[in-house]
User: Which sequence fits this backbone?
């Protein structure tokens, strides 16, 4: 993979883009460059996970698409509308759940959701608001003042507000932060349902297993640059490494020279021999390795294999993007 | 035009007023009643008429103006400052609303509240002092114009302020002194000539004078000048807000 693959606009007619980001850069007034010429297409109806360490520029990028932050250069279209020139149509198609729990403390759940629908230009529709609140298990709390709710419930309120105007594109900025397991499951079930109904979902998360579980495609952003955009399955396959760990009967101090052809390392004070292999190659080399071990009288009592998770891939991408992509 | 958006903002702001009815309505009515008791009744009974108007009646336009200005500013400045402070401004910034719609919603609600309050204070005053209104149409027109203009000014203060102190500084340290020195309690014709000239630089003089003309048909300055000055200030505020939204001033980074 090279950078051209990352930045090339989507030209595949079967997967039309709902959000097109072209050459977006952002330099804040203090001189800090948060984004460096980002190009990205989000496909209609997909779940796209944007991963990146803190301060990588994820929230700035979302802010630019939603109209909260002004880009220094570049253009964004949402559902075919330029987010600056044709901001009304563009913003009407977007729902945003921000990272921070910003809520109107003294408003009730019901009135804050109705307010959001009106603000986005939609006529009142109490049946829709009721459905959203029921889906988010907020119906019983509809008359409660927001300040009386727990952090997790406030997160649900923000999601209800974002869904009140039936957006085609939903941004979830760190939706799992401070949320208990039950709500996380509810939330992801709801996200799947939204996707099934045609809503495009773009999420940022620190819980990489969530991205691994939920997303169709993954984008990795680091230091203001989009270093990778890939189909999740392809990414896992391409960058996934498998390891075979052998627990030795007798510890070794060094790897015998005869085994130098295999990519081996000793861990656990010489008790474990780890063999890394590429899942893409036809021959894993495991059978030959086991034969060689037998020939050299190296006995083992246990063996297990493991596959690198998206988290491992993410860490290696962010720290050594060039090596990881080669 | 996003009419639903305007309606949502307007209702949100009006609901805020009714939630804090003691603070937003009862407190100003009580304060003004105290003014009438002290200045209108207790002290006023020992004062001579000004321009053939009893002192108690003379101070009504000034007192209504005092509440109208301070309430318009505080309602509108709080209205836009609170979402900034609480972070909920993200929703307004990401919504399909133009600056004109945002203004109609916030300034319209703030002006509605202060006009309601102004009428309430006039009704309260009637309990203490008998008065007649010479030009009812102009009274309502000036009431509306002043409420809208100063709500707009309050909106600007709310945009500018980045802490609660700044929010209070302008109403307390500028508007209140200007109103007291703007002829609320006296006719500027009672001042020495030099001070009369200096007073004409105080914009509140034009508001109170115009309002008093609507009540009693007497004024310190020409009614046309009063309305002209207020309109000019309205225009200046509108230009600033247009510029603020265009550049993202303290709203969009």
Assistant:
């Amino acid at each position: 993979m090279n950078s051209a693959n990352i930045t090339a606009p989507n030209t595949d007619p079967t997967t039309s883009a709902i959000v097109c980001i072209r050459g977006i850069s952002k330099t804040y007034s203090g001189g800090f460059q948060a984004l460096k010429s980002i190009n990205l297409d989000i496909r209609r109806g997909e779940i796209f996970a944007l991963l990146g360490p803190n301060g990588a520029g994820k929230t700035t990028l979302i802010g630019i698409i939603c109209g909260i932050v002004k880009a220094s250069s570049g253009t964004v279209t949402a559902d075919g509308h330029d987010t600056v020139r044709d901001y009304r149509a563009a913003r009407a198609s977007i729902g945003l759940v921000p990272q921070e729990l910003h809520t109107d403390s003294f408003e009730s759940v019901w009135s804050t959701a109705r307010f959001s629908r009106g603000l986005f230009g939609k006529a009142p529709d109490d049946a829709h608001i009721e459905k959203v609140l029921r889906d988010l298990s907020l119906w019983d709390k509809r008359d409660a003042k927001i300040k009386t709710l727990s952090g997790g419930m406030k997160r649900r309120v923000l999601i209800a507000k974002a869904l009140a105007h039936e957006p085609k594109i939903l941004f979830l900025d760190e939706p799992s932060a401070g949320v208990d397991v039950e709500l996380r499951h509810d939330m992801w079930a709801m996200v799947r349902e939204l996707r099934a109904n045609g809503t495009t979902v773009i999420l940022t998360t620190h819980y990489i297993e969530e991205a691994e579980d939920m997303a169709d495609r993954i984008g990795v952003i680091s230091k203001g640059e989009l270093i990778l955009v890939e189909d999740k399955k392809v990414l896992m396959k391409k960058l996934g490494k498998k390891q075979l760990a052998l627990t030795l009967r007798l510890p070794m101090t060094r790897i015998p020279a005869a085994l130098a052809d295999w990519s081996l390392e000793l861990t656990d004070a010489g008790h474990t021999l780890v063999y890394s292999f590429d899942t893409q190659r036809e021959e894993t080399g495991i059978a030959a390795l086991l034969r060689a071990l037998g020939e050299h009288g190296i006995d083992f009592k246990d063996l297990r294999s493991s596959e690198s998770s998206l988290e491992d891939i993410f860490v290696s991408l962010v720290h050594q993007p060039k090596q990881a992509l080669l | 035009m996003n009419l639903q958006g305007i309606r949502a903002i307007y209702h949100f702001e009006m609901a805020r007023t009714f939630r804090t009815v003691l603070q937003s309505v009862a407190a100003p009515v009580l304060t003004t009643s105290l003014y009438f008791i002290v200045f209108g009744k207790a002290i006023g009974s020992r004062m001579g008429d000004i321009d053939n108007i009893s002192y108690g009646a003379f101070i009504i336009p000034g007192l209504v103006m005092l509440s109208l200005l301070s309430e318009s500013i505080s309602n509108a400045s709080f209205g836009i400052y609170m979402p900034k402070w609480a972070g909920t401004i993200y929703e307004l910034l990401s919504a399909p609303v133009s600056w004109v719609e945002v203004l109609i919603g916030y300034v319209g609600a703030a002006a509605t509240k202060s006009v309601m309050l102004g009428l309430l204070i006039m009704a309260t005053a009637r309990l203490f002092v008998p008065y007649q209104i010479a030009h009812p149409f102009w009274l309502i027109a000036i009431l509306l114009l002043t409420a809208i203009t100063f709500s707009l000014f309050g909106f600007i203060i709310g945009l500018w302020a980045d802490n609660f102190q700044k929010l209070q500084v302008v109403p307390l340290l500028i508007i209140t002194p200007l109103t007291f020195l703007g002829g609320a309690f006296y006719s500027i014709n009672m001042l020495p000539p030099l001070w009369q000239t200096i007073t004409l630089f105080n914009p509140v003089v034009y508001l109170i004078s115009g309002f008093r003309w609507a009540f009693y048909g007497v004024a310190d300055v020409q009614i046309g000048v009063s309305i002209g000055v207020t309109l000019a200030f309205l225009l200046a505020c509108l230009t600033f807000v247009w510029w603020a939204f265009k550049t993202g001033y303290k709203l969009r980074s």
